Amino acid sequence: MSRDPAGSTRSYTEDFDASARPRPRPHLYLVLECHRPLALPARFSLDALDEVSFGRSKSRAFRRAAGNPRGLEIRLEDDRASSQHAQIKRSREGWTLHDATSKNGSFVNGVKQSEARLADGDILEIGHTFFLFRQGVLSEPDSSPPGAAESAGSVEGRDSVSGSEPHLSSMVPALRQLYRDIRSRATSDISMLIEGETGTGKEVMARAVHAMSGRKGRLVPINCGELKGDLVEANLFGYRRGAFTGARDDHPGLVRSADHGTLFLDEIGDLPLPQQALWLRVLQERKVRPLGSDADPTPVDLRVVAATNRPLDEMVKTGHFRQDLLQRLTGHRVRLPPLRERREDMGLLLASFLRRAGKESVQIQSKAALAMLLYDWPGNVRELENCVRAALTVAGDRVETRHLPDAVRAALDREAERKAAAKSALRDKIVELLVRHEGNVSAVAREMEKDRAQIWRWLKGFEIDPEAYRR
Question: What is this structure's pTM?
Answer without folding.
Answer: 0.79
